């Protein structure tokens, strides 16, 4: 018997967006349908490796890719241990999702700790460090591993562009969702293109 391919969630979303564009009078109805089918709350973890350009320039792309391979082997089991699901590894970034902000933050802290422990045993040319952004909120989840939403955008900005080596930055929504926590945080504000972006930096023990 011949199997009939079923439309993917991305195909379904594309069709809904097409209708949204072509039938403006139905936009409110289509938006509700998209949210009903695809939207749910998640904690978001965006992990970026530090010093990509500098490392590639000094040691070459192959060596840096080998460092990333080792890094991904290190952090993958940690994500699973804290109940997370890794979405993808794009360039020198890793994305993961969790049900709670507490799980995402604890995972982030453990990742930084483990990366530092491994680096302590390596030569300088073998070290690779991470910076991490954490978000929490309603996002669109399509085909299991495609995530869209404001919190995903802000967490990516924090992890990829604003956090320094070994630094964990939380969005305001992630900090609020976290509630009481054994971790300590300090409020910070970044200025981006004239706009202020508040965040919370985890204060880690040295």
> How much of the sequence is in beta strands?
25-35%
Largest beta-sheet details: 8 strands, mixed
Seen as an oligomer or otherwise, the chain set is single chain
What is the overall silhouette? globular
Order of helices and strands: HHEHHEEHEEHEHEE
Uncertain spans:
none
CATH architecture, please?
A: 2-Layer Sandwich
Radius of gyration: 19 Å
Query: What share of the residues lie within helices?
Result: 40-55%
Please identify which CATH superfamily we are dealing with: Nucleotide cyclase, GGDEF domain
The first-level CATH class name: Alpha Beta
Distance between the termini: 63 Å
Number of helices: 7
Mean pLDDT: 88
CATH fold node name: Alpha-Beta Plaits
Total tally of structural domains: 1
Task: Please give the number of β-strands.
Answer: 8
| Class per helix and strand makeup | alpha+beta
In short:
The protein has 206 residues and is an alpha+beta fold. The protein has a single domain (39-203), classed as Alpha-Beta Plaits, CATH 3.30.70.
What's the structural blueprint in terms of helices and strands?
Layout: H1 9-22, H2 27-38, E1 39-49, H3 52-59, H4 61-81, E2 85-90, E3 93-98, H5 101-120, E4 130-142, E5 146-148, H6 150-162, E6 168-170, H7 172-178, E7 184-192, E8 195-203
Parallel strand pairs: 4-6
Antiparallel strand pairs: 1-3, 1-4, 2-3, 4-5, 6-8, 7-8
Helix pairs in contact: 1-2, 3-4, 4-5
């Amino acid at each position: 018997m011949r199997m009939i391919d079923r439309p993917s969630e991305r195909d379904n979303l594309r069709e809904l967006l097409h209708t949204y564009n072509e039938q403006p009078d139905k936009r409110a109805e289509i938006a509700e349908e998209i949210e009903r089918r695809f939207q749910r709350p998640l904690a978001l973890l965006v992990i970026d490796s530090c010093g990509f350009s500098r490392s590639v320039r000094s040691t070459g792309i192959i060596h840096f890719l080998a460092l990333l391979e080792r890094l991904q082997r290190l952090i993958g089991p940690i994500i699973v241990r804290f109940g997370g699901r890794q979405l993808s590894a794009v360039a020198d970034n890793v994305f993961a999702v969790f049900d709670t902000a507490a799980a995402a933050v604890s995972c982030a802290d453990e990742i930084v700790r483990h990366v530092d422990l491994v680096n302590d045993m390596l030569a300088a040319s073998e070290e690779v460090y991470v910076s991490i952004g954490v978000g929490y909120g309603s996002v669109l989840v399509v085909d299991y591993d495609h995530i869209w939403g404001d919190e995903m955008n802000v967490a990516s900005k924090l992890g990829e562009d604003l956090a320094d080596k070994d630094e964990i930055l939380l969005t305001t929504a992630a900090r609020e969702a976290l509630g009481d926590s054994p971790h300590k945080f300090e409020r910070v504000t970044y200025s981006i293109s004239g706009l202020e972006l508040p965040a919370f930096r985890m204060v880690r023990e040295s």
